[in-house]
Design brief:
This protein is mostly helical and about 110 residues long. The chain contains five helices and two strands; from the N terminus they run H-E-H-H-H-E-H. It has one domain. A two-stranded parallel sheet has the order 1-2.
């Protein structure tokens, strides 16, 4: 089971708690599509989204800017979380596969 990861401190804590189990961990990466989408993650799905990311999505005030900002956030999350986990699972929010492809470009070679 994967859950989108936005808060690095949360995944670091989780990884420390399970390190004795030596199980593979795949981090879920979800490109946010809008401020409303970020609010839904926090309020309905109870997925922590750092205030910095919430503000970045709030400031991106139109669909194209929001999409681009969501991709940038997800690319940064991939870069930051990748050394900590065994892999990443990229989501294509609402069938927007091009967003997942853009995020995948941040993965590079291992």
């Amino acid at each position: 089971m994967t859950q989108p990861v936005f808060d690095l401190r949360q995944i670091e804590t989780f990884l420390k708690r399970i390190e004795s189990f030596r199980i593979p961990v795949i981090a879920g990466i979800w490109p946010l599509t809008s401020y409303r989408n970020a609010e839904f993650m926090v309020n309905e799905l109870r997925v922590p989204v750092p205030e910095e990311f919430m503000e970045r999505m709030r400031v991106a005030d139109n669909p194209e800017k929001s999409r681009a900002e969501g991709v940038r956030i997800a690319q940064k999350m991939v870069q930051d979380v990748r050394p900590m986990v065994d892999g990443v699972q990229l989501s294509a929010p609402f069938g927007r596969y091009t967003m997942a492809i853009e995020v995948a470009e941040a993965i590079g070679s291992r």
